[in-house]
Specification:
Blueprint (H helix, E strand, L loop, with lengths): L1 H18 L4 H17 L6 H18 L1
Helix pairs in contact: 1-2, 2-3
């Protein structure tokens, strides 16, 4: 049940990123939190979300430079 709930929450966050790009930083942080929750619970992380997280981290590093 927890996995399905987290997947649904992540799906909603991804939709928000598309529909509300002005809030993307906050949404990215929420997405990272959901992925941390999945890791803490020992749940498998979808490869596409791991790749997205890596890309977000890289984009964040570029923004800070």
């Amino acid at each position: 049940m927890a996995l399905e709930s987290l997947k649904a929450q992540i799906s909603l966050l991804l939709e928000e990123m598309v529909n509300q790009p002005e809030d993307d930083h906050e949404i990215q942080e929420q997405l990272r939190e959901k992925l941390r929750e999945m890791r803490a619970m020992g749940l498998p992380l979808p490869a596409d979300l791991v790749a997205l997280e890596k890309q977000l981290d890289e984009d964040f590093d570029v923004e800070e430079s």
